[in-house]
Amino acid sequence: MKEDSKRLLRGMTEVRDQYILEAEAFYQEKEDPGLAKESVKKGEEAKEEKECTEKERIDKEKKRSKIQDAKKKKILTLPRVLGISLSIAAACMVLFIRSHTHAPKSGSPGSFALEGTQGENSDGATMSEWNVEEVDSLQKAKELTGFDLRIPEGKEPFTKKTFTVIGDDMIDVRYSQEATSALGYDIRKARGEGDISGDYTKYAATQEVDLKARKVTLKGEAGTYSLALWEENGFSYAVRAGEKPMTEEEILEIVGAVD
C-alpha cells in the first residue's frame, strides 16, 4: 500500500520529498510508532537542509548582483572622469594658444596684438576681446564700419596692404613687403576716444607734437618712434611701426597722410 501511494503521488505531479516522507510516516505510525517518529525527523532535517540551500542560493544571487552593480558604476564613472579631464585639458590648451598668439613681446618696440585681449595697453586702459575679419579692400572695410578712411599708398618695400575690420567700428591696415610679408607699419582708425593701438609696450620716451592742428603723441626710445596716437572729430587713430622703429619725420609723414 505504501509503495503504491508513493508511486501514485509521483505519477500524478511533482511532489516534494518531505511530503512523501510525511505520507510514509503516516502509514508507519500505524505499524511502528518509533519508525514513524524517525521518518518525521528525517523529513524535518530534509526540510531544514532544503531551506538552508535555498537561503545560500539567495545570498549568492544578492552578492553576484552587488558585484555586477559595482562594475557598472565603475564603467559609467570612467567616461565621466575622462570627459571632465579632457574638457579641462582642452580649455587649458585654448588659453595657452591664445596667450601665445595675441600677447605682445615684452619690452619689444612695435610689438602689438592684432586682436584685443584682456590686458592693459600702453596707457593702462583695459583692452577687451574683439571679432576680427579680414576683407579684400578698403571699400569693403568702409562698408562694414560705416565710416571713411584715407590712407597713404605706401613706399617701397612696404607696398602690400592688408585690410582688417575689428569689431564693427575699427579698421586696421597693415603695410608689408610683397615678397616676405615682413611688416613695415600699421594704421588704425576707430570710433571713440583712447589708445586703440593694442601696443602694450612701456616706451622710455613720450613726446607731444602738433601736426596740422592735430596733437599727436609719439612713443619710442633712443631717438626713434614706434607709435603715434591722436584723436580727431570723434575718432581715434594709431600708427605703429613694425620691427624697425621710425624717425620722427618718417612716422609724422604717415600721420599726415591719414584721415
What does this structure look like?
This protein is of the alpha+beta class and 259 residues long. The protein has two domains: 2-79; 119-256. 44% of the residues lie in helices and 24% in strands. It is built from five helices and ten strands. The strands form two sheets. It has an eight-stranded antiparallel β-sheet with strand order 3-4-5-6-10-9-8-7, with helices on one face. Strands 1-2 form a two-stranded antiparallel sheet. A hairpin with a 6-residue loop joins strand 5 and strand 6 (183-191). The longest helix has 70 residues, at 33-102.
Summarize the helices and strands and which ones pair or pack.
Blueprint: H1 2-12, H2 17-31, H3 33-102, E1 119-120, E2 126-127, E3 132-135, H4 138-145, E4 160-166, E5 170-176, E6 183-191, E7 205-211, E8 214-221, E9 224-232, E10 235-241, H5 248-256
Antiparallel strand pairs: 1-2, 3-4, 4-5, 5-6, 6-10, 7-8, 8-9, 9-10
Helix pairs in contact: 1-2, 2-3
